[in-house]
Amino acid sequence: MKRRDLIKNITLTSVGLATAQVLPAQTENIAAGKPKKQKSNYGRTPDEVKRDEKLISETFFTPGEMAVITKLCDIILPAEGTSPSAVQVGVPAFIEFIAKDMPYQQVPLRGGIMWLENYSRKLFGKSFVAITPANQMTIVDAIAYPELATPAVSAGVAFFNLMRDLTLTGFYTTEAGFEDLGYVGNRPNNWEGPPAEVLKKFNF
Amino acid sequence: MTFQIKETPEIFDVVIVGSGAGGGMAAYTLTKAGAKVCLLEAGSYYDPADPQYITQMKNPWESPRRGASSTRPFGDFDAAYGGWQIDGEPYSAVKGTEFHWFRSRMLGGRTNHWGRISLRFGPNDFKRGSLTGIGDDWPIGYDDLKPFYDKTDKLIGIFGSVENMFNEPDGIFLPPPPMRLHEHFIKKAGTNLKIPVIPSRLSILTRPINNERGSCFYCSQCSRGCNKYADFSSSSVLVIPAMKTGNLTLINHAMVREVLTDQATGLATGVSYVDTKTMAEVSVRAKRVVLGASACESARLLLNSKSARFPQGLANTSGVIGKYLNDSTGASRSGFVPSLMNRDRYNEDGVGGSHIYSPWWLDNNKLDFARGYHIEYGGGMGMPGYGFGMGMHNNNGKYPYPNGEKLPAGGYGSRLREDVNRFYGAHIGMAGRGEPIPLETNYCEIDPGKVDKFGIPTLRFHYKWSDQEIMQAKHMQDTFEEMIIEMGGIPLGNKPGPETNYGLEAPGKIIHEVGTVRMGDNPNRSALNKYQQAHDVKNLFVVDAGPFVSQGDKNVTWTILASAMRTSEYIIDQVKANKI
Questions:
Q1: Which of A28, A173, B51, B61 could form a disulfide with B66 if both were Cys (CB 3.0 to 4.6 A apart)?
Q2: Per-residue pLDDT reduced to its tens digit, B254-265
Q3: Is 0.90 topped by the overall pTM?
Q4: How far is B340 from chain A (nearest CA, A)?
Q5: Helices (H) and strands (E) in chain A, counts
Q6: Which helix (H) or strand (E) holds B569?
Q7: Is A173 close to B351, i.e. CB distance below 8 A?
Q8: Sheet containing B457-462: which strands, arranged edge to edge?
Q9: Is residue B173 packed enough to be buried (19+ CB in 10 Å), middle (13-18) or exposed (0-12)?
Q10: Which phi-psi region, left, alpha or beta, contains residue B109 (left: φ > 0; alpha: ψ -120 to 50)?
């Protein structure tokens, strides 16, 4: 399938997976951590089904927190060419689920958001999502480069690293992520070794 | 809750506890021979071809956690239920010692989890005591098991290559799959360093072997269970075919409490179990009892089967049950290979697991540790799952982009897409799996006063690595680093040193534990004879890895299968001779 066709064809097929075609209202729904409910179809035990249903029915992040997460996801992986953005494929909802599924992530995520909001108010007097894009980038540039950042913002660096990790994992585990990566497996085939030209390139 | 004890009306020829490799093979062999067998499994039913259980070929986005390990220790898509911790089924360890006990409560047990690595023990592996002065010999040798390894190869199917290495006996092999690109790199590095790198030996059907099972379609997902039955798991290859004989009564959700005995004759008369759905107590009567519950679970069961006649537990006159518990050593390291950056894309899934491995290649007489290890390799352009792309800030500042430009580590935006794409498939991993020294001081025992939710007394472990295993792990780390550098790679993270026992995994983490119901010729020092038959109770047998005197550096499943088949055939012969 061509990348363009893929983008056209992706629908809200599963938890957290939205697309470039998703309407703004649906995107908001996903961003607010309310993915479309789907019946489990991948070999769950009854206990696992129960656990997931419970997690999905709960809400962890406040709307304000989700707005920060969504903005950061958008900065970390914006749309490019025909490939959708992290927000368009539902990464914020994925992060909401992960926070509920892995309680050890809750304090670093919520605390990281609090740190960011506090830093934003100190520098620019407002919430991170309310300041100008230029000011947002001033803050992001201060915390996005671990080796250049000052020790004073190390908490922000750790939070941004976590957000980068979750955004990349959230994006590349979607159909659009597979497409961006060029992953062509997970389908029946007959393995006969790497293509001859690949082996030739490395003199094997 | 009922306190009435139910009894099954039928007296079975054999009752088997546990449906994994050992129990499954016993059920298969005995039912095929016409025996009426009752198979008890503590967990649920499972069939990798039944859509309600299938995780194979699912995409990561079908899991809201993208396959992360929140409920299953090897991730959402791994076939195995259970893990190192199970609600209501605790265990403990003596202070200052450690053991992690992995259990799969489901049909097929831990054959739903394993890597399909199917290595025969070699002639030396049965004679470590006499060859090295450390440890003990087995009461049998390679020649005793060879016919059963051969039959197991033919029955179940295995790929590999004939290498004619003395202590890595060849089997009856299907063709191995060609190497992946990074495996060519590893093979070349091994050749340069004189470390053998040969095709893996995995129980995966690269060619069809019968009409009941399909052949591999190279999805790389054996750990998810195969809906075409193209790899080995006990459910699909042994138990389901055994059910088709009409001779097998399978009871799921049956947590066995004890082996029942006749106090006059001292013979086993069956087992009692807890129906985990209703909590009712049920007893099953049988003329012979076969335990395949796993090394530690079978030991626990025997220790819990105390009676006036058997006050130390059943088959335990020697007092050896629970002792000599040993798990494989394990240590690993990963590396990044810059020349594998910016790879051409193609489907590189291959079979489930590495297509190559390194069998032990050195002489321990010239080393400061007594036993060897083999190396398993990882890498390639696998399917993204939870964790993919994480830690990018540790790598993306180190390597220039095609235009020669370097950017500071971390960042955001379109460079991250490029980073993910250029690094994809450039990471490799190495894991050593080595032979430990079985020690009497490493054991499991009944934990005084503790019970699980079924009221069955639980296990307490006492396990410490000795210097032998620690020095072996040190050698593994040196080898891994040499190999990674020889490939033109960069070893990642700090090299594990003495502060972590050189990265040696905690006991139980490799899930190869054996040795708790030892076999031997001397009834004062062993629980079972050379046919895995209890010295004290002639109609009681153990067919998991409990009987094993040692484990070589060979993953033990293939030897469990061959030994269980040998014991089952012995049972058939003994019944025909009217001896049991």
A1: A173
A2: 999 999 999 999
A3: yes
A4: 10
A5: 10, 0
A6: helix B557-576
A7: no
A8: B92-93, B457-462, B443-451
A9: middle
A10: left
